[in-house]
From TrEMBL:
The keyword Thylakoid does not apply. InterPro entries: AceGlu_kinase-like_sf, ACT-like_dom_sf, ACT_Aspartokinase, ACT_dom, AKii-LysC-BS, Asp/Glu/Uridylate_kinase, Asp_kin_monofn, Asp_kinase. This is Aspartokinase. One of its GO terms (cellular component) is cytosol. Substrate binds at residues 47, 74. It comes from Solemya pervernicosa gill symbiont. The keyword Nucleotide-binding applies.
Amino acid sequence: MSLIVQKYGGTSVGTTERIGNVADKVAGWRDKGNDVVVVVSAMSGETNRLIGLASDITDKPSPREMDVLVSTGEQVTIALLCMALEQRGYPARSYTGSQVHILTDSSFSKARILDIDNQNVQKDLSAGRVVVVAGFQGVDEHGSITTLGRGGSDTTAVALAAALKADECQIYTDVDGVYTTDPRVVSDARRLNKITFEEMLEMASLGSKVLQIRAVEFAGKYNVPLRVLSSFEEGEGTLISYEDEEMEDALISGIAFNRDEAKLTILGVPDQPGVAHKILGPISEANVEVDMIVQNIAEDSTTDFTFTVHRNDYDKALDILKQSADELGAREVNGDNKIIKISLVGVGMRSHAGIASKMFETLAGEGINIRMISTSEIKISVVVDEKYLELGVRALHEAFELEKSPQ
Ligand code: ADP
Ligand code: ASP
Ligand code: MG
């Protein structure tokens, strides 16, 4: 007998009929003799609807109340799924994040899990019940409800799987695995049978929203076998694990993109020790995360500095930068929030030269201007205008022949 943690995303529980389908699937796993813990998201669109309600009232909601609000979506689905299971003759019990006691820090809207007390879960499993846990939420040491960031139900599932030492953590979603790129953008994207934690971590951090990055981090750290599967069709899905001999010998495992980027530039900054800190210090103090950073070589003892931030933080970052520009005596500040980032990811890149130049050549061939570049051992990212997203991703997918299995 195995212990399996399953997570069903928003689309998979999007209607009461679909919640019924999930109950059938869970029942199937029970019938095969497995213990099952299920984590569910809010019904699709619900979290956005709740965020919309708040913004009808204020543009500066209290972070604490915001988490009280957005965590309610998941409470609806846990109850409905338990009803559907019981109606099918399978005893089940639901828990909110605070009831299972998923203890987090107090960073509302992006809380980190510190500890899980799974005594209740263990007792229910021993009593033959299916345990259904609300994803995306926890509780801090003061008893306040917290949430784990968009897509956070993935992380709830992996954290529970780690705490319970589950045999596998299965993420059921609306695609049947992890693909070489988002199959909604490139129709001949190819499903991967396996991908390493390292590559999946890069894909997630570079914008592939199929798994929340923290879920991948957690799974890697605690060595939780993680699988992405379809809620709607049968199949093996994609296993995310450490590198082994069966891994595909691919140069590039996938293409990720991120639509949430914006870039800011400060021009003509006097080139002195400490300018980078003076520019980026106030940005990070305002809790704005900076992604790529480029500083030009100084000319006439002044330099230019460009960096990217999340699009939601663009206005805030621009205001701060304008203020810093005055203080530093910089010439000009400008920005662009109609840019996106496209990245090639692959551990095979480590031992191969020429990938970057092929990437640049391909983009040039489509008349796409590259605005920023950043590289690491296993990825190359470029920033381009938003309008080139689909064209760029498709051209790169074709140029690197990702639709073909590397044999
Ligand atoms: P859920 O609501 O189940 O959590 P998400 O919308 O968060 O589902 O994640 C699934 C979506 O991720 C897919 O519908 C797909 O459009 C997108 N996606 C992005 N990149 C990839 C990729 N490389 N492979 C598979 N899906 C991807
Ligand atoms: N409901 C939350 C969201 O939409 C969490 C999740 O679905 O993983 O982001
Ligand atoms: Mg998701």
